[in-house]
User: Fold this.
Amino acid sequence: MDTLDNYRRIIKEVLVPYTQIPYSYAAIECKTVFDSENDSYLLVTLGWDGVKRIHGCLVHIDIIDGKIWVQRDDTEDGVTYELEAAGIPKDQIVLGFHPQDARKYTGYAVA
Assistant:
């Protein structure tokens, strides 16, 4: 299997289980938005908490120049660890939510 196809498969396998976790305090759901053509993968939360509308991005991952860019990760434990455990090497994961000059200290790819 091609490396990029493998990365796409892993990202989907890591994100889909989050859609099965129920929210106990409100009528909120988590859904995936996968754009394999442009290599952009999202977890979106939406629904209602009483009269307040909930709509936001929980996780945003892109594949850019063959590397996994974690652009946003608001999960409790972090999807980065799950991506790594599923077989994506640390030197292929960029923590895009960190400033460029701080990435060299993360143990992950800088770009």
